[in-house]
Amino acid sequence: MSEINLLESVTAFLQRSHGHYINGASVLSQESTINQKNTMLSVVNPASGEIIATVNQAGEAEVNQAMQAASSAFHGVWAQTSPIERGNCLNRLADLLQKNGEELAQLESLCSGKPIQLSRMLEVGASADYLRYFAGWSSKISGETLNVSLPSLKGEHYTAFTRREPIGVVVGIIPWNFSIMIAIWKLGAALASGCTIVLKPSEYTPLTILRVAELAKEAGIPDGVINIVNGSGAHIGSALVSHPQCAKVTFTGSVSTGMNVGKSALEQGLKRVTLELGGKNAAAFLPDMTVDKIVDGILEAGYVYQGQICAAAERFYIPSIHMDAVLKLLSERLSAMKIGSPLDESTEMGPLANKEHYEKILSLFEKARQEGNEIVYGGHVLEGAGFFVAPTIIKANSADDTLMKEETFGPIGTFLSYDDEEELITMMNATPFGLSASLWTNDLSKAMRMLPRIKAGTLWVNMHTFLDPAVPFGGMNSSGIGREFGSAFIEHYTELKSVMMRY
Ligand code: TXE
């Protein structure tokens, strides 16, 4: 094992006192908040189980300060910033993400267990790309001119047009799996639309976005436009959602929390909501695929970043003629996978991101055993410190097994064979969720006929888990409300105002 050397800036950043980022400055919680709640968030390196930094939890004072700062900036400096300059701000932040990319990638790998190559590629590289995409939109958001059909009784004329107006202060609630990239998705969409934002990172990964906020200041993004408040979901997350100055909530996380957040936002003033929740995504391989290609596809769809990607596949449908050969080859490929330190550039799989998640995965292994599923490969912890488990293959007995229905969010593929393509579509759709799915076949004509029948917000053919800033992303059914990216985001971050005139 050979780990990369940590940059001095990374070690120095971990040792600092951390709290929040409000109105252009790093702030710690007020004394009273800390004493009252006596809580600090511990940032644990999941590869070692050790605490590597601590972060203050916010109290009411910090929530109010952040919301006030975002509101003042929304009505003041950001409203006076031209659309082109808003885009320039996002582009300069993208430049700084890339310039400081290695520092951010190392911090992210230390805090989340993401293999360093993945942190560099997604948390830094893709985040910069998303910012540049949103930067382009900032000067292209517009309404339309409409024909009016009112009768002209006394020779008067009418005209009408629509305006897209920024919605206000956005509260962004962020999960632990991509603590920079998902925050950038929310931040980029909000700022391009003319909104300001208060972000609440996950309790497990509160650190990296604080560094991004400092870079945002260096990029010339005015104070108050981006604010970060750290704390628990139950206290601080819900206080932000119910705050009177919050106009919209954008949330990525679990289905149950997302439903509560959505309900609370609607109950407290019909606040606008975008929810990107998880699911139980299916990948279906048609009989024309070779065993090699099927296994390549499964690895891409289900095992990247320990399966901790909301769009990753967890249910795999394999033609019964190929099932045994696929599971055999997949077992061989998983056993050759390099599992280890996220700071080793050759690592393909790191630890699970936190202890609670690790325990959840262990309980799901147990559940599979209790229900009589065959654990074809893995299904156990790996020796040593940290939250490592073996990548796992489970052969289900039926579509009703827990592992075919419940999101694991881990490196677990659950497999079911099929013979009939009608039955396949029924099984793929037999879920309350609908975030993503993939079909794998060389028969594109057949794929085109099947696509409209599969219930998922994003469908891939011969690929899985790839997101792109130009392509709308979001869930059907219990997997969410609204779409991120493409031009679809505009609808969710602006209000549509109609103006009619008589002349
Ligand atoms: O998620 P939560 P957790 C899934 C995955 C994982 C499970 C639990 O299966 O095992 O969710 O993870 C904030 N008001 N996903 O507990 O609870 C919370 O502080 C406002 C899928 O981390 O959904 C955090 O910032 N906010 C997912 C964020 O919500 C609240 C990615 C997500 O936390 C809140 C991560 C409240 N009442 C986990 N309660 C995906 N779709 O990508 C919590 N939060």
UniProtKB/TrEMBL annotation:
Q: Which residues form the active site?
A: 276
Q: Which InterPro entries match?
A: Ald_DH/histidinol_DH (IPR016161), Ald_DH_C (IPR016163), Ald_DH_CS_CYS (IPR016160), Ald_DH_CS_GLU (IPR029510), Ald_DH_N (IPR016162), Aldehyde_DH_dom (IPR015590)
Presence of the UniProt keyword Oxidoreductase in the record: yes
Q: Name one Pfam family in it.
A: Aldedh
Q: Establish whether keyword Glycoprotein is in the entry.
A: no
Stated family: Belongs to the aldehyde dehydrogenase family.
This protein is called Aldehyde dehydrogenase
Q: Tell me the organism.
A: Xenorhabdus hominickii
